Amino acid sequence: MSADRILTPHSDGKCRCPWCGTDPLYVTYHDTEWGVPERDSRALFEKLLLDGFQAGLAWITILRKRDNFRRAFDGFEPEVIAAYGPEKVEALMADAGIVRNRAKIEGAVLSARAYLDLREKGIAFSDFMWEAVDGTVQVNRPRTLKDIPAETPASRALSKKLKAAGFKFCGPTIVYAAMQACGLVDDHLEACWRA
Known about the structure:
The two termini are 18 Å apart. The relative contact order is 0.18. Helices cover 50% and strands 2% of the residues. Helix 2 packs antiparallel against helix 6, helix 2 packs across helix 9 and helix 8 packs across helix 9. A two-stranded parallel sheet has the order 1-2. The protein is mostly helical.
């Protein structure tokens, strides 16, 4: 077995996917959230928006700001975000606790409106997302990080569907990251204790 396939145990004796490093916040996220199936529509919406804000940044940056995002974005309640006007956008642009990117903030408002449009049509966001994997977790057991794709046919199809519904910042790579994080896909490495 090549060296890049061997995971080094952490101080607790558990081997983990190397992307989480040893930062306690990142390790807890890896151990308790990443890859765990999420079926709650609001929680899925939050994760998709956060992955959109993460574009171009490291996920740990967003993870460290997540509580600030939740405060600033009213708990990621789509009904509240959809009603944001210019004053709220400006307040968010002045909030150093979040990623201050106007296009992403305005995209979150449009995505909230798209979420509500789906609901008005009788489509739960959870069903909309999980349809991409036929409602079943896609379990992969990559050997190395190099074996994990940045996007897949399923993420490309879901991205296209989200964009058609009016969602923003939902390219196939962002969507695949959300699919991994929300457990639609389980990409824990085969040597990881969570596999």
